[in-house]
Amino acid sequence: MPTRLRHLVPRSLSLVLAAVLAVLVVGGVLTATAGSAGAAEPTCVRPQPRTDDTIHILGCLTDSRTTPPKAVPDASISVESEDGDVVGTDTTDQTGIFDIALPGTSTDNIGETYVVKIARDSLPKGTKLRNPKQEALRVTLNLDSDRFVTFPIGDIPQGTSLGTRALQLAVGGLVFSLLLAMAALGLSMIFGTTGLTNFAHGELITFGAIVAYGVDRLPGDIRVFGTNVTMVVSVLVAVVASVAFGWLQDKGLWRPLRHRGTGIIAAMIVSIGFSVFLRNVFQYFAGADNHNYSQWTNPKPWSLGPVDITPKDFGVLVTAVVVLVAVTLAVQRTRIGKATRAVADNPALAASSGINVDRVISVVWSVGAGLAGLSGVLLGMTQGFDYQLGFKILLLVFAATILGGLGNIWGALVGSLIIGIFIEVSTLFIPAELKFVGALVVLILVLLVRPQGLLGRAERVG
């Protein structure tokens, strides 16, 4: 069995990477074609990175009543101290961006609170704030990095029915839930084979997004037959780097801890410390700013009946579906997948039957990290990212995994679909700021009735 595993591991990883490559190339071509067919006016063009030791308050104003949203120029923005003194002003440019430098150095402003105000009478004719009472935002600076704020503009177009809005939100929720599913699947596989509740899994998500961003920022474009495939190459490099990072983690950290007989609770605490360490490393190298990839920043959406979807989101959706199907089929039907399930059921019995348990766990760590890294890249493509991307959604990944059943791959998929779609559709009835809270309330209610999760097996404790 060990010899077979040695040959099957690169084969399985090669198949997954080939599937990712094929889907990304198709998605890239479709997006490039759509962009060239009808490029929209640029909005929210980010300023160039600075090297000065100051903190800026930036933002972008767009009118959501148009599809895609239209930039709102010439709007007056001011920043005041808590005493009411104006410390800076600016007007939005033609892409909707405003940029106000705060007085003093970045260290001087840590802990300070400022009030960002918009002059409602400076908005273009026919443009209005979504919430007329929200003309001022309080901002407390806890980090020595720029702070982004926004004032929602526009309202829901007249005549849009509740069903249409719910369907549009469900489409967005489906895209997010599939990306959540990839991260949850990796977490569930690692827990199933090792019993480790890995709190550093969020950093595996962030790692993939940062590696892809590093490749994307290299000078020049990568073109194949005239098509810009820089982002495709960035995604592939990120997946390969994430797979290697997962293997190195197991080889250098988790395997030695297992061999020393480290308990599950102690290992979980180690993962918390490792998470904090990696997050600080990411902040050092990537900074605290929000980042976006160079391609597909503002593609023109496709209208599919009553809903709109961008070529970028469509490519992300197809990629996620192909990868999830490939991984689940590999776990169910290949020898390495059967060996993985054997180790998850009974490691001692699997070892006595000739399975190299350490090698199987290394494969699981590699695949789990690769899935998390790919999830991070695709999340960054859909919403941008910063060094805390994985940390921000880690609770949702845990919620999806626990809701479906810890260690159950189908449970991770089902739980992710429920959580992802619910949090988006719930914004029809609750403020968007509370949508994650609603998902966690659903999780608590389900666990009160079925603690093992929807597809988990009940087990005796003690």
From TrEMBL:
Signal peptide: none
InterPro entries registered for this protein in UniProt: ABC_transp_permease (IPR001851), BCAA_transport_permease (IPR052157)
Record family assignment: Belongs to the binding-protein-dependent transport system permease family. LivHM subfamily.
Topological relation to the membrane, as annotated: Multi-pass membrane protein
Any Gene Ontology biological process: amino acid transport
Domain of life: Bacteria
Protein's UniProt name: Branched-chain amino acid ABC transporter permease
Keywords linked to the UniProt accession: Amino-acid transport, Cell membrane, Membrane, Transmembrane, Transmembrane helix, Transport
Pfam family, one: BPD_transp_2
Subcellular location: Cell membrane
Source species of the chain: Marmoricola endophyticus
Keyword Cell division among record annotations: no
MF terms in GO: transmembrane transporter activity
One term under GO cellular component: plasma membrane
Spans through the membrane: 166-187, 227-248, 260-278, 314-331, 393-423, 429-449
Record flagged with keyword Protein transport: no
